[in-house]
Amino acid sequence: MGISGATPAFQPPVIPWLAPQALVAELDLGPGLDGQAVEIALQRLCADASVQAVLAFGSRARGSGRVDSDLDLAVICRESSLAPALKTERWSHYRGLLGPLGCGVDLVVQGCADAERLAGSRWHVMGDVAREGKVLYVAC
Hints:
alpha+beta; 4-stranded mixed beta sheet; globular
């Protein structure tokens, strides 16, 4: 006899950032953002040779962002894994490429193999990125 109301078994998400995709044009990431400024900033970020993929996640990706919401971005690097010092360096570099966007930016940086492995977690932020993220760019 089954237990009614039981939570279904956790199913890891399909990895959404594996298929090449040009930078999404005419982004709509919610109110309070200058779409043109965000697009230019993302063009600079995606032009960096170390960037494999960029995804938005959180309230703005879900379409529930408010004027005062921050912009949550995940940057997946081409390297499989990033040592802590390199991850910090990349975070700083990528944040500089984005420049001021008129809202707070929460930036997550991962190597591609680490991102895939962590995407299967229910508790790690990369699991949230895989489940609800909006793919903005994937390098060819």
